[in-house]
Amino acid sequence: MREAEAKALGQRVADGDRRALARAITLVESTRADHREAARALLAALPVRPALRVGLTGTPGVGKSSFIEALGMMLTGDGLRLAVLAVDPSSGRSGGSILGDKTRMSELTRQRNAYIRPSPSQTALGGVARRTREAIRVVEAWGADVVLVETVGVGQSETMVVEMTDIFVLLIAPAGGDELQGVKRGIMEMADLLLVNKADGDLEAQARRTRADYAGALRLIRPRPGDPAGWPRAMCVSAATGAGLAEAWASIRELAEARQTAGTFETHRRAQAEAWFRHALETGLLARLAAHPGIAALRREAASRVATGELTPEAAADLVLDAWGGNG
Ligand code: GDP
Question: Domains in the chain, please, with CATH?
Answer without folding.
Answer: 1-47 (1.20.5.170), 48-261 (3.40.50.300), 276-326 (no CATH)
